[in-house]
Amino acid sequence: MALLRFTATVGGYTLLSRILGFVRDVAIAHFVAAGPVADAFFVAFRFPNMFRRLVGEGAFANAFVPLFARRLEGAGRAGALAFAEQALAVMLAAMFVLLLAAELAMPWLISVLAPGFAADPERFALTVELTRITFPYLLFMALVALLGAVLNALLRFAAAAATPILLNIVLIAALFGLGHVLETPGHALAWGVAAAGAGQFLFMLIACRRAGAPLRLRRPRLTPGVRRLLVLMLPGLVGAGVHQINLLVSTIVASFEDGAVSFLYYADRLVQLPLGVVGVAMGVALLPLLARQLRGGAAAEAVDIQNRAIEFALLLTLPATAALLAVPGPIVAVLFEHGAFDAADTAATAAALAAYAAGLPAYVLVKVLSPGFFAREDMVAPVKIAAAAMVLNVALAVALFLPFGHVGVAVATAAASWLNALLLGAVLYRRGHLSIDARLRARVPRMAVAALAMAGVVFGLAWLLESALAGGVALRIAALTGLVLVGLGVFGGLAVVTGVARPDELRGLFRRANRPS
């Protein structure tokens, strides 16, 4: 099945990137833990990332891929690439203006993003300085998103999926190479972010040329195609903005608790591993496939592939969710409790991890269901749904922060994601774009039972290995590795026995895919 092969490609590179990301985060935890420098860098890194996801990845990619696919079908590759060049010129001009404006207004922007930092002038000044260094990353990433969207629309997924690997390699090198040379390790990381952005852009330029899709720089013009792209992007911008407001609210609320920004960051990074490998990868592969099927009039096939996307996403997500809920403490301790990161930091991060993990299936379902709207050039319905979820997130974050601190913020995020996923599914179902078939109805309950059984085994084994998980670094790593392997074995065995996962389907992932034209 093409969807699974393409998802495996994206997910494989994403997995490698996430592993390197953990190495990066372990190094950050070792050098700076959860103190003022860490808080300043995480805000500085999150700020350009927020704009990148808002403009470069979310709204742009979701609007661009269906339009590019339409031109590919009607005007051929030359016409599609001409459209991409027009979009590139306009994006470059717009991002450059945004970059200059943000650099000038940075103190004001940081006071909005992290108002709790204002009580500590040194931390506030450091955050402003580091964010000014990292913000050019936005310009490069917007261009990388465009080049990646072109390759994905051509069903070439590897290069775009591999670019985050460069970021992690550069940040690790910067931390170890410059962490003791510059003023703080945060400065080394900030300069690493800027350098990595330039490297990723050059990498994608080369990848496009090798794929037979070189893009020339044109004079920016609002052609009819670009105007249509902007029209589709507008509700997408609002929708992506709603998601970023959720993150912004979490950061604002957490900034009033010392270390909370860092606790939530480390916990979120752990949740991002299965989310990126499964949810994001599935969504990236699904959108161009759905767009092509709908352009070709294959509506029934589009519904079927949507079912299979949900099925395989849950097959991989439910066991990850169960494991994160069963043993969050040992996972955080083994990965992060080194150097300046102490047992108190572990307890605080593990509590946030458990809360985030409760929403992991919902996070993945949002990524899998959203392409059902985007492929049909419907950007409005997801915006309305995301707005409803945002209202719930803001209300719960504020209400739960006082009694539960940063854990309440994580609970609010999980609850809002479940509302988002359920509403997306309900609207698709009502419109006839999603019909839960017998295979999906039969397999999901068995997946849940297998995941719960695995969680029970892992929890009991963690109790037996309590002393090993609290021992030296090598012993802890060995114990956690054992937990992971046993968990995988239990879930895999139950999945095969109950017919949830069939060996012939899994073997299909490794068959060579036909290269797209």
Protein architecture, described:
By secondary structure, the chain is mostly helical. The chain has one domain (2-440). Helix content is 83%, strand content 0%. It has 21 helices and no strands. Helix 3 (76-104) packs antiparallel against helix 6 (136-153) and helix 10 runs parallel beside helix 13. The protein is globular. The two termini are 17 Å apart. Residues 509-517 have low confidence and may be disordered.
Q: Would you tell me the structural class of the helices and strands? A: mainly alpha
Number of strands: 0
Order of helices and strands: HHHHHHHHHHHHHHHHHHHHH
The helix content, as a percent range, equals over 70%
Q: Which range does the strand content fall in?
A: under 5%
Low-confidence stretches: 509-517
Mean pLDDT: 84
Main sheet, how many strands, which sense, barrel? none
Global morphology: globular
Question: Number of DSSP helices?
Answer: 21
How far apart the termini lie comes to 17 Å
Rg calculated over all Cα atoms: 22 Å
What is the total number of structural domains?
Answer: 1
Features:
single chain, 517 residues, disordered C terminus
Fold topology:
Layout: H1 2-32, H2 36-74, H3 76-104, H4 106-113, H5 121-134, H6 136-153, H7 158-178, H8 185-210, H9 224-254, H10 260-295, H11 299-326, H12 328-336, H13 343-357, H14 360-369, H15 371-374, H16 380-404, H17 406-430, H18 438-464, H19 466-469, H20 473-497, H21 503-508
